[in-house]
Amino acid sequence: MSSRAEDEALARAAVAALTRQLELAPKPGLPDPRDLRARVTRRDLGSLRWSAQALVPGLAAMAAAARRTGRPTPELRAELGSIGRCAEHSVALTGGGHRGALWVLGLLVAAAALDPGARGPGVTATAKRIAAHADRRAPRRPSRGSSVSARYGAAGARGEARAGFPHVRRALDALAAARAAGAPEPCARLDALLTVMSTLQDTELLYTAGPHGLRHVQDGALEVLEAGGTSTRAGRSGLAALDDDLHARGWSPGGSGALLAGALFVDALPLAPA
């Protein structure tokens, strides 16, 4: 397979992972196939799927930049940032969305291209080395996420990446544990989402719900897991109640959804050759 084909394959694998996240149901506070009214956002699931496809060229360009550079340098970090901002503009033309997922998937795709033999924690460790550098070409104005991070002391998207995506690793562990326990694949993915929600300092939630709202969501996710997870009757009932509660409040754990997409991408990478 040519390098260009490999880059596009990584990009399409990342978008496929994002699509698998979008199609999960019920996802507390997040759009899913049962709710085409998209109560939390103004975008229905069809438009989110459509706009996700617009990420492919940008993600492929990130993979190509990493493969060409060959090392996690400041120059690579700056190039990834520039590509990401162009990709955001392209996605906006198709309806928008996925900004958080683009950040997570972009770094993970670049890491997978930079170290083709890496799998699981190896991918997130490479992403950490890329994210350690500042984006020298980034706009000077603060983003909403960085403003919320500064106000509440939350790690935010940048902190999550610079720590090596600990919540992606937690989601991967949750997927493995649920599968080992015999849970159906959709339940394993939902348990992974709830695992992330139970501890992530989600800046989107902090912005809309404040610290007390964030803790409410974290506690609700933990209660479902402690009830046995989404493959049990008690856990499924708790999940439905949490979903109804977050939709009614208009609270969306978008950061957790993006990190689950990242975990599903890393999880789907083919096994490294022996």
How would you characterize this protein structure?
Helix 5 (99-114) runs parallel beside helix 13 and helix 9 packs antiparallel against helix 10. This protein has 13 helices and no strands. The chain is globular. By secondary structure, the chain is mostly helical.
Summarize the structure.
With 274 residues, the chain is mostly helical. It is built from 13 helices and no strands.
Overall geometry: globular
Count of DSSP E strands?
0
Quickly give the structural class.
mainly alpha
Q: What is the helix fraction of residues, given as a range?
A: 55-70%
In this structure, how is the largest beta sheet organized?
none
- Helical element count? 13
Instruction: Give the rounded overall mean pLDDT.
Output: 89
Estimate what percentage of residues fall within beta strands.
under 5%
Point out poorly predicted stretches: 36-43
- Cα separation of the termini: 19 Å
Order of helices and strands: HHHHHHHHHHHHH
Query: Radius of gyration over alpha carbons?
Result: 18 Å
What's the layout of helices and strands?
Blueprint: H1 3-23, H2 45-53, H3 56-69, H4 74-93, H5 99-114, H6 121-131, H7 144-152, H8 156-162, H9 166-180, H10 185-197, H11 203-226, H12 233-249, H13 254-268
Helix pairs in contact: 1-2, 1-3, 1-5, 1-13, 3-4, 3-5, 4-5, 5-6, 5-13, 7-11, 9-10, 9-13, 10-11, 10-13, 11-12
Considering the chains and any ligands shown, give keywords for the structure.
274 residues, 13 helices, 70% helix
